[in-house]
Design goal:
This protein is α/β, with parallel strands linked by helices. Helices cover 37% and strands 22% of the residues. The chain folds into three domains: 190 residues, FAD/NAD(P)-binding domain; 97 residues, protoporphyrinogen ix oxidase, domain 3 (Orthogonal Bundle); 102 residues, Protoporphyrinogen oxidase, mitochondrial, domain 2 (Polyamine Oxidase, Chain A, domain 2). Helix 1 packs parallel to helix 10, helix 1 packs across helix 17 and helix 5 runs antiparallel to helix 6. The protein is globular, with a radius of gyration of 23 Å. The protein binds flavin-adenine dinucleotide.
C-alpha cells in the first residue's frame, strides 16, 4: 500500500504484534512500542530443568486461518503443533472424584457428574422462553434459567473459571459468551439453536470454537509473538514504556521512556493494545469518561503453578486435558492442566508436567489475605490427593499475575459502546487488546484482522 501515514502500536502482546505484522506486510509504516525487554505480554514461556512451561496462555484455538498463515509466513511452519487427541477429554471434580465431561448423548446418560434430576432438567430447555433482561444478565443467571442450577455448578462454573478465571454470577452472558447469548436471541433456545447454527456455519465454512483445533508451538506459545517481532526487526522497540499521548494538530505525539531517556514519536494513527488500566492513564486527559470506563474493568489475580514429577510416581492414566474444579467443591485451586499429555516437549520422556491455576474472581482477596507459600502448599496437597500422587514433585515454580484477565462483567456493553464513541470523537486514536472482542489468543488474532481492515480503509478514505 502506498501511504505515508505513520502508525504506532502500543503494546507488544499478541494483539499488537499480529495487527502490526499485517500492516507491515501491506507496506505501511508501523512501529510497535513494548515496555518490557521480552515480547509477548500474556504469552510467556520458560524452559527449566527439562520442563517447558507456558506461564500465561498455554494454547490457543485455531478459529481463523490467519493464525496458521502468520505462523507459516514468519517461519514457524515446523514449530506449529496441534494438541494430542487425548486432550479432547476433560475432567470435572465432584465429591473428590474426577468425572469425564460427557461428549456424546450416551455418555451424558451414563455420567455420574450430574444427577438424574439435573439430566431431566436439561430436557426442559427448549421450552424456556427468552429473558427480558437482555444485555444485563450474567452467564450464571442465564444458565440457571435455561439449564438448571446443577448444570451451572458442575459444568459452567468450572468452565468459566477455566477460560476467564471468572465468576459466572459476575460475567455478562452477552459480552463474555456472545455465541451462547445469540443462540437464545436468534433461535429461542440453546438446543434448537446449536442444531440450526451448525447447519448455517457449515454453509459459511466457519469453524466454531468447540470444534476448532487446539494449537501451540514445540517451543511454547511465546515463540509466536517473538518471531513476528524478529521479522519486523527495528519496527519493534522494546524497553519502550509509553508515558504520554498528546494531540498536536492532526498528529499524535507519543512519549516513551527508553532506558531512562524520554523519546518521542509522531503518528497519524495510534493503536493501544495495552491493558485497560494502563491505557486509562494515557488517555484520560482526552476524555475523563473514557478513563472511568477503562478503570472500572476488573482484572482478577491468578497464580499459575508448575509442577514436575517422575512419570513412575504418577499412577493415574493421564488421558485428557486435565481437570476443572467447581466452586462447590471448595478447593484452593481452580484446576490443573496435564501439560505433558497435551503437547510434546513439555517434559523429558520419563517425567510429567502439570500446570495449576489458583485465584481468579472466585478468590479475589486470597493473595492479599494468605501468604503465597501457604496457598501453594495447600494447592499442591489437594492436587496430589486428587491425582493419587504419593511422591514429592521434582520441580516447582510459579508465575503470579496480579491483574490477569479482563472480566466482561454485567453491563460491559456500556464500556463497548463508549469505546466506539471515543474513537469517533478522536479519529486516529484506537483502543484494542483483549478487553475488546474476546480474551482468548484466537479472539485477539481474529480482532487484529478486523483492526487491520479498519486501518486500511481509514487510510484509503483519507
Ligand atoms: C495466566 C493466563 C492464562 C491464559 N491462558 C490462555 C489460554 O490458555 N488460551 C488463550 O487463548 N488465552 C489465554 N489467556 C488470555 C490471553 O493470553 C490474553 O488475553 C492475550 O494474550 C492478551 O494479548 P494482548 O496483546 O491483548 O495483551 P497483553 O498480552 O497484555 O499485551 C499487552 C502488552 O502491552 C505492554 N504494555 C503495557 N503497558 C505499556 C506501556 N505503557 N507502554 C508500552 N507497552 C506496554 C505489556 O508489557 C504487554 O506486553 C491467558 C491469560 C493469562 C494471564
Amino acid at each position: 500500500m502506498n501511504s505515508k501515514k505513520k502508525i504506532v502500536i502500543i503494546g507488544g502482546g499478541i494483539s499488537g504484534l499480529t495487527t502490526a505484522y499485517q500492516l507491515f506486510k501491506a507496506g505501511l509504516d508501523v512501529t510497535v512500542l513494548e515496555k518490557n525487554k521480552e515480547i509477548g505480554g500474556s504469552m510467556e514461556t520458560i524452559s527449566e530443568n527439562g520442563f517447558l512451561f507456558d506461564r500465561g496462555a498455554n494454547s490457543g484455538l485455531e478459529t481463523v486461518p490467519l493464525i496458521r498463515k502468520i505462523a507459516d509466513e514468519v517461519g514457524l511452519k515446523d514449530e506449529f503443533i496441534h494438541a494430542n487427541a487425548k486432550a479432547n477429554k476433560r475432567y470435572i471434580l465432584r465429591n473428590n472424584k474426577l468425572h469425564a465431561l460427557p461428549m456424546s448423548p450416551l455418555e451424558f446418560i451414563k455420567t455420574k457428574l450430574f444427577s438424574t434430576k439435573a439430566k431431566f432438567r436439561l430436557l426442559a430447555e427448549p421450552f424456556i422462553g427468552r429473558s427480558k433482561d437482555g444485555y444485563y444478565q450474567s452467564i450464571g443467571q442465564f444458565v440457571r434459567r435455561r439449564l438448571g442450577s446443577e448444570f451451572l455448578d458442575y459444568a459452567i462454573n468450572p468452565f468459566v473459571s477455566g477460560v476467564y478465571a471468572g465468576d459466572p454470577d459476575e460475567l455478562s452472558v452477552r459480552s463474555s459468551f456472545p455465541k451462547l447469548y445469540e443462540l437464545e436471541e436468534k433461535y429461542g433456545g440453546l438446543i434448537v439453536g446449536t442444531i440450526r447454527s451448525i447447519r448455517e456455519r457449515k454453509k459459511r465454512k466457519e469453524i466454531a470454537k468447540q470444534s476448532a483445533k487446539m494449537f501451540s508451538f514445540k517451543s511454547g506459545m511465546q515463540i509466536y509473538p517473538q518471531t513476528i517481532a524478529k521479522v519486523m526487526d527495528e519496527r519493534v522497540i522494546t524497553f519502550a514504556d509509553v508515558t504520554k499521548i498528546e494531540k498536536q494538530d492532526s498528529m499524535y505525539r507519543i512519549s516513551y521512556d527508553n532506558a531512562g531517556h524520554t523519546k518521542h514519536i509522531d503518528a497519524d494513527i495510534v493503536i493501544s493494545t495495552i491493558p485497560a488500566y494502563a491505557c486509562a492513564n494515557l488517555i484520560r486527559h482526552f476524555d475523563s469518561e473514557v478513563g472511568l470506563h477503562l478503570d472500572s474493568i476488573f482484572y482478577p489475580p491468578v497464580m499459575v503453578l508448575y509442577l514436575g514429577y517422575k512419570k513412575e510416581d504418577v499412577k493415574r492414566n493421564l488421558d485428557g486435558f486435565g481437570f476443572l474444579i467447581p466452586e462447590k467443591e471448595e478447593k484452593s485451586f481452580l484446576g490443573a492442566i496435564w501439560s505433558s499429555t497435551i503437547f510434546p516437549n513439555r517434559s523429558k520422556e520419563n517425567e510429567v508436567a502439570f500446570t495449576l491455576f489458583v485465584g481468579g474472581s472466585r478468590n479475589k482477596e486470597m493473595f492479599s489475605k494468605v501468604d503465597k507459600e501457604i496457598i501453594i502448599n495447600n494447592a499442591i496437597d489437594e492436587f496430589e490427593k486428587i491425582m493419587g500422587i504419593n511422591e514429592k514433585h521434582i520441580y516447582k515454580s510459579y508465575r503470579y499475575w496480579s491483574k490477569a484477565i479482563p472480566q466482561y462483567t454485567i453491563g460491559y456493553v456500556e464500556h463497548e459502546r463508549y469505546f466506539d464513541k471515543f474513537e469517533k470523537k478522536f479519529p486516529g486514536l484506537i483502543l484494542s487488546g483483549n478487553y475488546r472482542g474476546g480474551i482468548s489468543v484466537g479472539d485477539c488474532i481474529k480482532n487484529s484482522e478486523l483492526m487491520y481492515e479498519k486501518i486500511v480503509s481509514t487510510i484509503g478514505n483519507a
